[in-house]
Design a protein that fits this description.
The complex is a heterodimer of chains A (330) and B (426). Chain A is 69% helix and 4% strand. A two-stranded antiparallel sheet of chain A has the order 1-4. The longest helix of chain A is centred in the middle third of the chain and has 27 residues. Chain A has 14 helices and 4 strands. By secondary structure, chain A is mainly alpha-helical. In chain B, 53% of the residues lie in helices and 12% in strands. Chain B is built from 12 helices and 13 strands. In chain B, the strands form 5 sheets. Chain B has a 4-stranded antiparallel beta sheet with strand order 5-4-7-9, with no helix packed on it. In chain B, strands 6-1-10 form a 3-stranded mixed beta sheet, with no helix packed on it. Chain B has 2 domains: 97 residues, Sandwich (Immunoglobulin-like); 276 residues, ABC transporter involved in vitamin B12 uptake, BtuC (Orthogonal Bundle), CATH 1.10.3470. The chains are: A mainly alpha (330), B alpha+beta (426). Chains A and B meet through helix 4, helix 5, helix 12 and helix 14 of A and helix 1, helix 5, helix 10 and helix 12 of B.
Chain lengths: 330, 426
């Protein structure tokens, strides 16, 4: 058992690429679910559309990086409208089913052989991150404290990523202190009461869906750039459920809880995964019980179990307030 | 039951790849396993060439169907399967896909999938239809659509009744199907019981699983006063947990039952299908009729419909609501297990099969009207027909997309479904 490696990778995970990506996705989910009470189970599609918007523009059509970012953002907003118009008037569980179906549609279209020339089939797209790394201000080398080091490429992605996380958190903080945020929270508590005050509930919900989607889509950009490649199956339904687990773990309707939730979530996941792999590799867990390939399955099992236990015993998560959780069916 | 996870197929692809890539990243290679109906196919020549046609290596698949070709560096490669070396009775499912262009990434081994099957049974209907008229294809696809629709209907009945009586949108319902299919697989393939007997055992176990889930889990949650949205998210957690327990135990590959594998097709008018399909449809129809009659005629069935309509009123008129819910979970679990066995018979057993069909079940249920038993039946068959018939115009790989689009359109224009009532959508 190499505890040193386990410890270092776990510490790296607390600020690593996955944490940034899932924090951004979870901030989006937090606006939709935590503040507005919308059960959007298609968050993966928002990240996917943004990432593919960037990758397809640059890799398939050889246009500029910034145009790719713009197209990714526009595609996200369009998707939010397409999703929102038919579903936002429906009850929460219908919204959940429709958004999860929409996310699967997006994923299936991305991986279709029919559109392989554009989206690259199940191989996805590569060779689109050159312009981004050309802007890298870090000179080549390893950066970090002690044994925890990142390459200059990772440093650049993480710097941009954490700046986006900070900006998103600031935006959410300001918005939720504003009258707009109070209306949103009121819609979560009692939609009919807000409607009787003359507010356009549908329009507020749509704005929340778009805003949550756009913040999530920043995570899609970071994901694509950080890996320098994208595949359609990265944006499966599990991604959305991870984001929900993170929001509920941190506590819904709190500004910083998605960020803290994402860090805790990935630290736990990486720690458990690495410890199990090491234990299996070192023979501490005999191979008749599990093999290295089964570690991935065990991690997913733990996420499922964790989500269930959280909802049963502590639906408000770590920082949340039980009175502020939108769990009443409407 | 324990089978080591040897190679994750393209289905698992991205996510698992992301989670575990460093563990097996020693040198770029192309590899794969040739299987026909779950049996390895050996001695098939596979040649690999670079993108511009320079040959890299040529290998033959081993006794376990596996082959592997190390490649010098990351990049694009052409992999060709020599169809002349395939044993008698085995053919490529897609004749035009004997050569595949695949991308190998830095430091990773790439799985290459050649779909094999008995000759003449090309997948998707569309590929084999060169000589047949459009009406024969419509007839064939309608038959296949009914076949799929009945499986969806079996799953949808339980889901819809559970929603009607408890208000729970159960995202873990698909795992009840997988559970049934896996139980039948275990008794059939590992314990050597004939498939029909294994299916009966699986249905009984499925019923027990449904009963226990309600008795020790959902019932407790209802009594604690967990809200419906909380329970819905809990069901997602349960679905994740169960699905990956299945992956842990079963492995990431698809496998077939031992019996009724390579049945020669029977021609019935314009329709050609294996006898097992006719039998399966007969059994599914019989079960649906029995459940339907039971709902209409028996005391418990009437009570179930009363609870689905208005639990408080049913309770106050002396119906034991908890008992009715328990019966619905038990029957729903058993019927879902049967649906899982049938699905495994139609398209092999896989740990994701339940989740993959769950969205179609949701589509069927919402199309028919959530909470109504017969609406679910009608909606499911419409979804099944739509999926298969849509392959006349859209590529086979996108047929599910069409069905999910319909789900969204139904939400837009008639959210209460075909047989549902307006008030249910709240």
């Amino acid at each position: 058992m190499d505890w040193n490696t386990i410890l270092i990778t776990t510490l790296k995970a607390s600020i690593g690429l996955e944490t940034v990506v899932y924090a951004l996705a979870a901030i989006g989910v937090n606006i939709q679910f935590g503040y507005a009470g919308l059960l959007n189970f298609g968050q993966a599609a928002f990240l996917g559309v943004a990432a593919y918007g960037l990758a397809v523009t640059v890799a398939t059509f050889h246009l500029s990086f910034w145009l790719g970012i713009a197209i990714g953002l526009v595609a996200t907003v369009v998707l939010a409208f397409l999703l929102g118009i038919p579903t936002l008037r429906l009850r929460a569980d219908y919204l959940a089913i429709v958004t999860i179906a929409a996310a699967e549609i997006v994923r299936l279209v991305f991986r279709a052989v029919k559109f392989k020339d554009v989206f690259g089939g199940s191989d996805g797209r590569q060779n689109f991150s050159g312009d981004f790394y050309a802007m890298n201000p870090y000179s080549p080398g390893a950066y970090g404290i002690g044994p925890i080091t990142f390459t200059e490429r990772t440093m650049w992605v993480l710097t941009v990523g954490w700046i986006l996380v900070a900006l998103s958190c600031g935006l959410v903080y300001l918005l939720m202190k504003s009258p707009w945020g109070r209306v949103l929270k009121a819609i979560r508590e009692d939609e009919d009461a807000v409607r009787s005050l003359g507010k356009n509930v549908f329009s507020y919900k749509m704005q929340a869906l778009v805003l949550g989607g756009v913040i999530g889509c920043l995570g899609g950009f970071i994901f694509a750039l950080g890996q320098a490649s994208i595949q359609p199956d990265l944006f499966g339904t599990e991604f959305t459920f991870y984001a929900y687990t993170i929001v509920i773990l941190g506590g819904a309707a709190r500004v910083f809880s998605p960020v803290v939730g994402a860090a805790i979530f990935w630290v736990l996941l990486v720690f458990v995964g690495n410890t199990l792999s090491e234990a299996v590799g070192a023979g501490v867990i005999p191979s008749s019980i599990m093999t290295v390939n089964q570690v991935g399955a065990v991690r997913f099992m733990l996420v499922g179990l964790g989500l269930m236990l959280l909802l049963i015993f502590r639906p408000q998560g770590i920082f949340g307030d039980k009175r502020e959780i939108a769990l009443d069916a409407r | 039951m324990r089978r080591a996870v040897i190679a994750f197929t393209a289905f698992l692809g991205g996510l698992v790849f992301l989670l575990s890539s460093p563990a097996w990243a020693d040198g770029e290679a192309l590899k794969g396993t040739l299987q026909n109906q779950g049996q390895p196919v050996n001695g098939v020549k596979i040649s690999v060439a670079t993108e511009d046609g320079k040959p890299v290596a040529e290998v033959a698949s081993g006794a376990d169907g596996k082959w592997e070709v190390p490649v010098p560096k990351a990049g694009k490669y052409k992999v060709t399967l020599d169809q002349k070396t395939l044993p008698a009775g085995v053919a490529l499912k897609f004749k035009n896909r004997a050569t595949l262009d695949v991308q190998v990434f830095d430091g990773s081994q790439r799985n290459v999938l050649f779909a094999l099957g008995p000759p003449g049974q090309q997948a998707g209907g569309g590929q084999s239809a060169s000589g047949t008229s459009i009406w024969e294809r419509v007839a064939q696809l309608t038959f296949e659509g009914f076949n799929l629709g009945l499986i969806i209907a079996l799953a949808a009945m339980g889901l819809s009744l559970v929603f009607g009586t408890t208000g729970l949108t159960n995202f873990a319902h698909g795992e009840l199907l997988t559970f049934g299919a896996m139980c039948a697989y275990f008794f059939n393939v590992v314990a050597g019981v004939p498939l029909i007997l294994a299916a009966i055992i699986a249905v009984v176990l499925g019923g027990a699983f449904g009963y226990l889930q309600d008795q020790f889990f959902w019932n407790r949650l209802r009594r604690r006063g967990s809200s419906l949205i909380a329970m819905m998210i809990i069901s997602i957690g349960l679905a994740l947990l169960l699905r990956y327990v299945f992956l842990f135990l079963f492995g990431g590959e698809s496998a077939a039952y031992l019996d009724y594998n390579a049945q020669p097709g029977v021609q019935l008018g314009p329709i050609s299908a294996a006898p097992k399909n006719f039998w399966a449809m007969g059994i599914e129809l019989a079960v649906l009729v029995v459940v339907g009659v039971a709902l209409l005629k028996t005391r418990t069935g009437k009570a179930a419909r009363a609870v689905a309509d208005n639990p408080a009123l049913a309770s106050s008129s002396g119906i034991d609501v908890e008992r009715v819910i328990r019966i619905i979970w038990t029957v729903g679990g058993a019927v879902a297990a049967l649906a899982g066995v049938m699905l495994g018979l139609a398209q092999n057993v896989n740990y994701q099969m339940g989740f993959q069909i769950l969205l179609l079940v949701f589509a069927g249920v919402t199309l028919g009207g959530l909470g109504t038993a017969f609406g679910a039946l009608v909606g499911s068959i419409v979804v099944g027909l739509f999926i298969q018939l849509s392959t006349l115009v859209v590529p086979t790989e996108l047929k599910t997309v069409g069905a999910l689009m319909v789900l969204i359109l139904v939400m837009l224009f008639r959210p209460q479904g075909i047989l549902g009532r307006r008030e249910r959508i709240g």
